[in-house]
Amino acid sequence: MDINIAKNELIKRGFLDLVIDPQIDLFAEIQKLKKEKNAILLAHYYQETDIQDVADYIGDSLGLAQEAEKTQADIIVFAGVHFMAETAKILNPSKKVLLPDLNAGCSLADSAPTKLFKAFREKHPDHLVISYINCTAEIKALSDIICTSSNAQVIIESIPPEQPIIFAPDKNLGAYLNKKCGRNMLLWNGACMVHEIFSLQKITKLKIRHPQAKLIAHPECEEAILNIADFIGSTTQLLKYSETDGAQQYIVATETGILHQMQLKSPDKSFIPAPPENNCACNDCPHMKLNTLEKIYLCLKYELPELLMDEELRVAAKKPMDKMMSISKQYGLIG
Fold this sequence. Notes:
globular
């Protein structure tokens, strides 16, 4: 077999990092490849610290979508999960979109199978469908408007109160928004594995041990956690709050990757990851953590794995994305 074909097959399966020369300076090589190929590396806050440090832009789902939409790069390397790379391709059909590990999926996106959701929507033809961006391209194509945790409240409040709404796929975020906006949206029964397993008992004990610490939580968390939170917000909102708020200690109920940016922004403050129900001290997303510095280097070097999408699906998925971007810009939301 031709050596290049063999390498490409290994990259697609995510295994080629095992044969990288350990003497390679991956930071320098990644920067060199980005410059040579006019590539941009976009990374979600939940990525490992090395990836955040080498990324051109770090953000949450809304910020990453906006950055992907406006980039002049020829190649977009998306250090995140599959639906995020899909979003970049939806917005940039002529650009090459690469995902370091094609197995980097999303438990929340997986909780809304296309056929089941299509049947669910057909049972409620009078409902407008607002879908959280953490969903597949197929679910986006079945939606009227996409939202993120940064802009969901604004988008929902832009819809007349008499208009019935289906909100998918996150039931916890949907329940929080129903309460926040005074709506009665019909919720799809999906959830994020990371945000669903925080332990109320362990967090309560942490708060007793650290009485000055504020609990800050992502709205994907279950209601019991949100009820005792001092602040609830998107990943970016949590970061901004921790930077501007006067407290010196925070218990953070979201994926632990964000703690790196919090510590960089506020080196004099301390951040404690909220513990899950299992025996781990923190709560990592196994899908996000599939991406590594080695895989990003190989992804850039060989321009694989590439995210490809059927054009009819892309166009259908872009319509609700465009509505989200328009509303976000109208209200000055930047992620």
